[in-house]
Amino acid sequence: MKKTIRKTYKISSTIDRVWQALVDPTVINEWGGGPSKMDSEVGTEFELWNGDIYGKNIEVESKSKLVQEWFGGDWAKPSILTFTLKKDKEGVILELEQTDVPDEEFEDIDAGWDEYYLGPMKQMLEKKYKN
C-alpha cells in the first residue's frame, strides 16, 4: 500500500527566497540538492542530485504552490509532491505533501526530507539571510 508523507516547516525568510530555493538551480545547489536542473514552468522536466531524483512540474502557482511528479531509482510510477507556501508573521510556512510513496522506501524518504532536502534548505535560508 502506498503511503503519504506530510510535513510542515516554519522558515524565517521571505516567500520570494523560499520559492527561489525550490525552483532556482543555483540556490538548490547551495543547500545540497545539486547538481540540478529546475525552473518554475509547468511541464519542466527536472533533476536533483545529479538525476537521482527526477520528474516533471505539473502545476505551478508562483510563490504559493508547486506540484511535481517525482521518481527515484526505478519506480514504476511517480510519487506526487505538493509544496505549499504561506506567509506567516515570523516568515513562511512551507507545507509538504508527498503521495504514493513506495512502502519499501517510506522511512528513508520521510527522514530524507529533514536530513537532505527541506531541513538543509531551511538552514541555508535562515543562516544566509539572518538579519
Quick structural gist:
With 131 residues, the protein is α+β, with helices and mostly antiparallel strands. The protein contains 3 helices and 6 strands; from the N terminus they run βααβββββα. The protein has a 6-stranded antiparallel sheet with strand order 1-6-5-4-3-2, with helices on one face.
**CATH classification class:** Alpha Beta
Name the strands of the widest sheet in spatial order.
1-6-5-4-3-2
Low-confidence stretches: none
Task: Report the major sheet.
Answer: 6 strands, antiparallel
Class by SSE composition: alpha+beta
β-strand percent reads 35-45%
Number of strands: 6
Could you give the order of the helices and strands?
Answer: EHHEEEEEH
What's the number of structural domains? 1
Helix content: 25-40%
Contiguous helical run count: 3
* Architecture per CATH nomenclature, i.e. the level-2 architecture: 2-Layer Sandwich
Task: Report the average pLDDT across residues.
Answer: 94
Q: What is the alpha-carbon Rg in Å?
A: 14 Å
